[in-house]
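wait is this the right file?? whatever heres the structure
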């Protein structure tokens, strides 16, 4: 075992606490983004909002949160998304030729993330 590994094993609680704080900060950014609400209707309930990819999907946002992806990687993926309520999301997926126009808020995403 090298010195770096020894240091890690001696300080596991410290590393775990740091990881938990980091995940919490990232989750807070995602929650702030969802506070913007659905792009198409007035839905603001956090549990009803989804990230809908309007560009090529690299990974699922919820998966990234659970796996502890870094904020930069997560933001790049979120910038490909629009926030939709479950109903609007299902309608958009069901009918890809829907009259709902792509409405993205990249400036608000960047403003929230810059404060992180």
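ok assuming it is, sequence goes like this
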């Amino acid at each position: 075992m090298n010195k770096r590994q020894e240091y890690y094993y001696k300080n596991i609680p410290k590393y775990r606490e740091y990881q938990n704080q980091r995940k919490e900060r990232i989750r807070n950014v995602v929650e702030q983004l969802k506070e913007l609400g659905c792009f198409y209707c007035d839905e603001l309930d956090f549990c009803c909002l989804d990230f809908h990819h309007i560009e090529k999907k690299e990974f699922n946002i919820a998966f990234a949160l659970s796996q502890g992806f870094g904020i930069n990687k997560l933001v790049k993926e979120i910038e490909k998304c629009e926030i939709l309520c479950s109903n609007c999301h299902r309608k958009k997926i069901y009918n890809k030729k829907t009259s709902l126009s792509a409405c993205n808020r990249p400036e608000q995403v960047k403003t929230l993330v810059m404060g992180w």
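Confidence is low (pLDDT under 50) at residues 98-104. so i think its the right one actually
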